Amino acid sequence: QVQLVESGGGLVQVGGSLRLSCAASGRTSLTYVMGWFRQAPGKEREFVAATSKSGGTYYADSVKGRFTISRDSAKNTVYLQMNSLKPEDTAVYYCGADLGRIYEYDYWGQGTQVTVSS
After folding, report:
1. Measured between alpha carbons, how far is 26 from 115 in angstroms, rounded to an integer?
2. Selection from 84, 35, 91, 94 nearest residue 63 by Cα
3. CA angle (94 as vertex; 88, 95 as ends), nearest 5
4. How far apart are CA 109 and CA 15, in angstroms?
5. Residue 72: beta bridge partners?
6. pLDDT band for position 66 (50/70/90)?
7. What is the Cα–Cα distance from 115 to 69, expressed in whole angstroms?
């Protein structure tokens, strides 16, 4: 019903920046909320940031002030600008979408690896 494709992950040094993208296709009317979770090795998947079509934005405390989520509704694409990256940001980042929930999603992308090296 909804397909999500992430891009933009990679290897970056501490203090560097990366921008992740997530493009939605299919029934994009179901993607009122789009956001990002991440999962580090041996840890549970955790919420990072989300945005709604109305413009609301939500962040985990661990990324506030460093990460910015934005959305281009015309392109059905959400972005995650990550600055001042830390080793603890290393994880697989997953894009998700939902009709209305901020912290739970029905649709997920395949994930993109972000590695922050010290």
Report:
1. 30
2. 84
3. 130
4. 26
5. 77
6. very high
7. 19
